[in-house]
Write a structure and sequence with these properties.
It is a single chain. This protein is mainly alpha-helical and about 160 residues long. It has one domain: Cytochrome c/b562 (Four Helix Bundle (Hemerythrin (Met), subunit A)). The chain has five helices and no strands. α2 runs antiparallel to α3 and α4 packs antiparallel against α5. It is elongated, with a radius of gyration of 23 Å.
C-alpha cells in the first residue's frame, strides 16, 4: 500500500511539473494588453472631445481643442512597442476575447508604419489648426478618423 501511495504521489508531482513547464511556455501578455487598451482609452477620450465639438454636442473651445489635439499627437508619438509583443493577438492561446489585435499586425510592418504615419500627419495638421475655429476642427476630423480606421480595419477584429 505504501508503495502504491508513493508511486501515485510521484506521478502526481511529475504531472504538476509537466503542467508548470507547459504553463511557462504559454506567454502571458496581460500587462501589455492592458497597457495598450488604456492607451487607446486615453486616445479615444481626447478624440471624443474633438468629435463632440465637431458635432456641435459641446461648445467649441479653442484651448480644449488644441489640448486634445496635442494629447492625440503625443499619444501617437509615444514609443509604445513594448505594448505590442508578437504573439499577443486574439489568435494566441487564451487571448481570444481579451484582445482584438489580429496576428497579421506583426507581419505587416511596412504597412503598419505607413498607416501610423498617415495618422501622425493628420494629427500634426489638427494640432496646427485646432485653435483656429470650429470649421478647422471639422475639416480635419475626417483625416484623423481615416488614420484611426486604417489600422483598426486592417489590424483589429470587429467588436462582437
Amino acid at each position: 500500500m505504501t508503495k502504491t501511495i508513493s508511486v501515485a504521489t510521484f506521478s502526481f508531482l511529475l504531472s504538476l511539473s509537466t503542467f508548470a513547464t507547459f504553463a511557462q511556455d504559454v506567454p502571458k501578455f496581460e500587462n501589455q494588453i492592458e497597457a495598450r487598451q488604456s492607451f487607446m482609452r486615453v486616445y479615444a477620450f481626447n478624440l471624443g472631445l474633438l468629435g463632440s465639438m465637431a458635432k456641435g454636442e459641446t461648445p467649441y473651445d479653442a484651448q480644449r481643442a488644441t489640448d486634445a489635439a496635442e494629447n492625440l499627437l503625443a499619444n501617437v508619438k509615444m514609443k509604445n512597442g513594448a505594448m505590442w509583443p508578437a504573439g499577443s493577438d486574439a489568435d494566441a492561446p487564451g487571448l481570444g476575447g481579451v484582445t482584438r489585435a489580429k496576428a497579421v499586425i506583426w507581419s505587416s510592418f511596412p504597412e503598419v508604419g505607413e498607416k501610423h504615419q498617415a495618422l501622425t500627419d493628420a494629427l500634426t495638421e489638427m494640432v496646427a489648426v485646432a485653435g483656429n475655429g470650429l470649421d478647422a476642427v471639422r475639416s480635419n476630423m475626417g483625416a484623423v478618423g481615416n488614420g484611426c480606421k486604417g489600422c483598426h480595419d486592417a489590424f483589429r477584429l470587429p467588436e462582437e
